[in-house]
Design goal:
618 residues, mainly beta, Immunoglobulin-like, 5 domains, 6-stranded mixed sheet, 5-stranded mixed sheet, 4% helix
Length: 618
């Protein structure tokens, strides 16, 4: 057969080795499969030469092509490592077969040199040298492609092997494409507004972000018939808007042309680098046509309610894709019940008298579409009467009355007395109170005409300055001083205010000689041989003098303490009082806790005192 008909496989070295299975070389990311057919080869060499390893038989290099472009498949992309002259093989004898076309492109062969039907998509190594194999990319955004080809191996090396050939597509920024999905006709009602959306104008651009796409209206699009406006600036003509504006429904076309109803608008879109094709939108304004599509009426139980929906009352207009408000205005209704406006309006039956059969109710309404409206429609209601009992059971209904915290409650019963007599005005005769405020200010505005009210009130640190107004804080800090003059007893009226409300009260004054009164005298309990502190909790006094400082109260022990008491002399300014405090002494052995001998339950009437004696608790 000769050397030209020999079959060469992957690892060809000096000598042929039939027992070793030689596999195809696979690239890191296999993308194309090629089969290789070589002439049969016989070579006689030594056993030593047969066992020496050879080079890689087939080496594949990625083909780089621009997105949507083309590039030739050359010998640098597919390399067969053979010594052609030494083996007597020509490049035209090394054949490649395309087992399947690439996914995102196509391998094309020079039709002048190939019969595609007979050859079945095969080419030789010589074709690669002459640039007769061309790859055409289909424009896909996928950066990788592949094709499959087969290399035929002699039967004693176990059949054919497939090789995948990589094709890398270099990204190219494409221009956006603009289309009209619903056609070029844009209809709306005359003198109305209709939103533009992605069903009217649709752009396709896989290379750009939607925020980068900007639409532009070209030329003069019959501005006297209408214009585009944005939701953010109604009434202002715009010629550019973004893709997000379109997607969010912010762009509207407003027809203002009156009798001029037809116009055109040319639009294109840009991604900031490239512009799209131009589309023309034909705008047609039509007169509103409407009709009543449904008026079935409704049924409702006596005293019940029913929703009136579009299944019961509906109207139909000639522009179905335009959104606008349709309102139903109730003109009149019968005496059984009103129909409330709303969407959908409810019908509430309020008739409660007993009937023996169903009755028919109705109301009249008009359906308005902006400035247009239908004729008066009569909507019928069938009331299904139900049987009621003559009387129901008894129920208690509780009512809580909430008081006004700022309201002023005044009791004023006046005062009746004999001539020359003096009387105290108590809270039973004159009383005022508020719920929400405890800070009350009393102000005496005028004196009695036929009697006398003592009202000489002065500042503590300035007795020559008379007071006619003071507050709770002044009394808390002992800033208000009362100086008695004239009779030994009397009273005067104070008006009290919280800044918003006013009330009055009566302050009774009794003037007496200076005195010191023992207010607290608990005595002392001390253990034998121990000490105890005498404090105000054990002994305290209350003088009716102008005592401004506790230091003015002096306790003097003028007689040594006795066994059972401590005699003391109490002094406030010039007034003195002798008093003694009892002392009880107990032994250490007496420090046992007390024991309850018996305890009885006592019954006490509400708001009344009761005395607990030794017979009740010991």
């Amino acid at each position: 057969m000769g050397l030209p008909h020999a079959v060469v496989t992957k690892d060809i070295s000096v000598g042929c080795e039939a027992k070793k299975l030689l596999e195809a070389i696979t690239t890191m990311s296999p993308k194309a499969v090629l089969s290789v057919t070589l002439p049969l080869l016989y070579y006689h060499g030594s056993d030593r030469d047969r066992k020496r390893p050879g080079q890689n038989f087939l080496v594949l290099k990625d083909l780089v092509v621009p997105e949507g472009g083309r590039a030739p498949l050359e010998s640098k992309h597919i390399k067969v490592n053979l010594e052609f002259r030494k083996l007597g093989i020509r490049q035209s004898q090394i054949m490649f077969r395309i087992e399947e076309q690439p996914m995102h492109g196509q391998l094309r062969l020079d039709m002048n040199h190939f019969d595609q039907e007979e050859e079945g998509w095969t080419f030789s190594m010589l074709d690669l040298w002459h640039g007769r194999v061309m790859y055409v990319h289909g424009g896909s955004e996928d950066p990788q492609d592949f094709t499959n080809s087969k290399k035929e191996i002699p039967f004693y090396l176990k059949g054919n092997k497939l090789h995948r050939f990589n094709v890398s597509a270099t990204p190219v920024k494409d221009a956006p494409e603009l289309s009209l999905p619903k056609g070029s006709l844009f209809m709306l009602l005359e003198n109305s507004k209709r939103h533009l959306n992605t069903d009217v104008l649709r752009t396709t651009d896989l290379d750009s972000n939607s925020t980068d796409l900007v639409f532009k209206v070209l030329g003069n699009h019959n501005a006297e018939t209408g214009f585009l406006e944005k939701q953010d600036h109604p009434g202002t003509t715009i010629t550019t808007f973004s893709q997000p504006d379109l997607e969010e429904g912010k762009v509207s076309y407003l027809h203002i042309g009156g009798l001029v109803r037809n116009s055109r608008m040319a639009v294109r879109v840009s991604d900031g680098d490239k512009v799209s094709n131009i589309v023309v939108l034909r705008i047609m304004a039509v007169q509103l046509e409407h009709k009543v599509a449904n008026n079935t009426g409704v049924e409702v139980n006596q005293g019940g309610a029913a929703i009136i929906s579009s299944q019961h009352l509906a109207t139909q207009v000639n522009v179905v894709k335009q959104v606008f408000d349709i309102c139903s205005d109730v003109a009149s209704y019968s005496g059984y019940t009103p129909a409330e406006s709303g969407s959908p309006p409810p019908y509430l039956n309020t008739f409660q008298r007993i009937k023996t059969s169903n009755v028919t109710d109705q109301f009249k309404c008009k359906v308005s579409f902006g400035s247009a409206a239908t004729d008066v429609l009569v909507f019928h209601i069938t009331v299904r009467w139900i049987h009621f009992k003559a009387h129901s059971g008894s129920y208690d209904f509780r009512i809580n009355i909430k008081a006004d915290v700022h309201s002023l409650i005044i009791t004023n019963k006046g005062l009746s007395m004999l001539e020359g007599e003096s009387k105290v005005i108590t809270k039973d005769r004159l009383f005022a109170k508020t719920v929400g405020s405890k800070a009350v200010l009393y102000t005496l505005t005028s004196s009695a005409k036929q009697g006398k009210l003592k009202r000489i009130i002065v500042l503590m640190n300035d007795t020559g300055h008379k007071l006619y107004q003071f507050c709770q804080e002044d009394m808390h800090h002992r800033r208000v001083l009362f100086i008695p003059r004239g009779v030994s007893s009397g009273c005067f009226v104070l008006f009290v205010s919280d800044g918003k409300h006013y009330t009055s009260t009566l302050l009774e004054v009794i003037a007496q000689d200076p005195y010191i009164q023992v207010e607290n005298n608990t005595g002392l309990l001390v253990q034998k041989g121990q000490t105890v502190v005498l404090g105000s909790a054990n002994l305290s006094v209350f003088p009716n003098l102008d005592g401004r400082d506790d230091k003015e109260v002096v306790y003097e022990v003028f007689i040594p303490p006795r066994t059972a008491s401590v005699p003391q002399r109490l002094s406030v300014k010039e007034v003195r009082l002798d008093a003694s405090i009892g002392v009880r002494v107990y032994l250490e052995s007496h420090q046992q806790p007390p024991t309850v001998l018996y305890i009885h339950i006592i019954v006490v009437e509400e708001a009344k005192p009761v005395k607990i004696n030794r017979g009740d608790l010991e």
